[in-house]
């Protein structure tokens, strides 16, 4: 496989960072990284674009059972066993060291909290059928991160877009059947947040259309749909 092709490197890097590249393919990709500067640059670029989205995920505090489990493993008594004082001291020292290490690991985990369920990530790509400015269309690439409970969405363009004066971008939730629902206007150059209940209910894809400055006057897309992204089934 020719990994020097930019489009192939970008595709593999995006799947690697998103976590959809798995098994033998992921192991092979990781083995190739040290020898391929283009792959490393692509991975760094996707990490820089996607990792900030995790800031929208609230921290999760560990349960009390975590410490109870650590204490049970470190200080579990051995029935019928008698130990010399130096053996008990050694066990205490090892236990203290293990507890300190466990505390350090827990602190790192709290500093970088991991959600109980990963967010849903959707990549929105340019719509080749759209009748729109070619320069705008070529850059109409977005990534959406939706919380696992489906209540919050963060959308960000992979590169800033230039929208003509008097025009705006509007985000839509597209059902498998029926009319799309407006999720509001979004930024063409930075992150946008949507707080709605049941964002993912009856939603098969997301779309972005080019509308008048105040948004669609009809409640449905009136301008060209420049970007589309389907939810994985």
Q: Could you give the distance between the termini?
A: 28 Å
- Biggest sheet: strand arrangement: 5-4-7-8-1-2-3-6
CATH class of the largest domain: Mainly Beta
Extended strand count: 8
CATH topology (level 3) name of the largest domain: Immunoglobulin-like
Q: Mean of residue pLDDT?
A: 76
Taken in chain order, the helices and strands follow as HHHHHEHEEEEEEE
Name given to the CATH architecture of the largest domain: Sandwich
Which helices and strands, and how do they pair?
Elements: H1 6-18, H2 23-32, H3 37-50, H4 64-74, H5 85-111, E1 120-126, H6 134-138, E2 142-146, E3 152-157, E4 167-174, E5 181-186, E6 192-195, E7 205-212, E8 225-230
Antiparallel strand pairs: 1-2, 1-8, 2-3, 3-6, 4-5, 4-7, 7-8
Helix pairs in contact: 1-3
What would you note in describing this structure?
- It is a single chain.
- The chain is an alpha+beta fold and 233 residues long.
- It has three domains: 6-56, no CATH class; 64-111; 120-230, Immunoglobulin-like, CATH 2.60.40.
- It is built from six helices and eight strands; from the N terminus they run H-H-H-H-H-E-H-E-E-E-E-E-E-E.
- The protein has helices at residues 6-18, 23-32, 37-50, 64-74, 85-111, 134-138; strands spanning 120-126, 142-146, 152-157, 167-174, 181-186, 192-195, 205-212, 225-230.
- An eight-stranded antiparallel sheet has the order 5-4-7-8-1-2-3-6.
- A hairpin with a 6-residue loop joins strand 4 and strand 5.
- Helix 1 (6-18) packs across helix 3 (37-50).
- It is globular, with a radius of gyration of 25 Å.
- The two termini are 28 Å apart.
- 21% of the residues are buried.
